[in-house]
Amino acid sequence: MTAGGSSIPEVQALLRVLAAERRRAGEIGTAFGEGATAIATGLRPGGTLVTVELDPRRAEIAQKAFARLSSVRLIEGDWHVLEPFAPFDLLFVDVHEAKTDPAVLDLVETGGLVVIDDLTPGRPGPDPIREFWLRNPRFAAVEILTRPDMGAIVATRIS
C-alpha cells in the first residue's frame, strides 16, 4: 500500500499504457500528482484529464507538478465534483472510499476503463473492493499484479 502518498512506478507505467489514445480521463485522488502525470503523458494529443484532491496541501504540491501539463485540470474537493465532467473513457480511482461507491460506475462511459490499485495479493477473507469490481455485471474486470506484493484491477464498462 502507498498509504495515500504516491502511486508506485509500476502503476504509473500501467496508467501511461492504458491512457494511450484516450481522450477524457478522470482521477479520484490526485495526491502529489504522479498518477495524473502518467495519465496526462499517455493521453492522445488534445486529450484532457480532470483530477480531484481533497487535501489542500497535496493539491498545492500537485498543481505545481502540473505547471507544464496544459491537459490537466486539478480540482480541490470531494471526488463527487467530477460528476459534471463525466463520462470518462479512463478513470483512476485512488481513494479508498470511492473504490466501492456505486456512483463511481456512472463516471465511466461504455467501453471506458477503470483502474483500482493498492490491492494486496493473497489477502485472506472477503475483500469488498474485489467483490465490487470483479462481480459487477456492468463491467468486465481482471486483477493483475503490478509487482509481487501489489495488485490492481482493470475493468471496462460493458453496459
Oligomeric state of shown chains: single chain
What helical percentage do the residues reach?
10-25%
Task: Spell out the helices and strands N to C.
Answer: HEHEHEEEHEE
Number of domains: 1
Q: CATH topology, which one?
A: Rossmann fold
- CATH homologous superfamily annotation: Vaccinia Virus protein VP39
CATH class call: Alpha Beta
Strand order of the largest sheet: 3-2-1-4-5-7-6
List the helices and strands and how they pair.
Layout: H1 9-19, E1 24-28, H2 34-42, E2 48-53, H3 56-65, E3 72-76, E4 88-93, E5 108-119, H4 128-134, E6 139-147, E7 150-157
Parallel strand pairs: 1-2, 1-4, 2-3, 4-5
Antiparallel strand pairs: 5-7, 6-7
Helix pairs in contact: 1-2
Characterization of the model:
- The structure is a single chain.
- The chain is an alpha/beta fold.
- The protein has one domain: Rossmann fold (3-Layer(aba) Sandwich).
- It has four helices and seven strands, in the order αβαβαβββαββ.
- The protein has a seven-stranded mixed β-sheet, with helices on both faces.
- Strand 6 and strand 7 form a beta hairpin.
- The longest helix is centred in the first third of the chain and has 11 residues.
- It starts with 8 loop residues before the first helix and ends with a strand.
- The model has no long low-confidence stretch (mean pLDDT about 95).
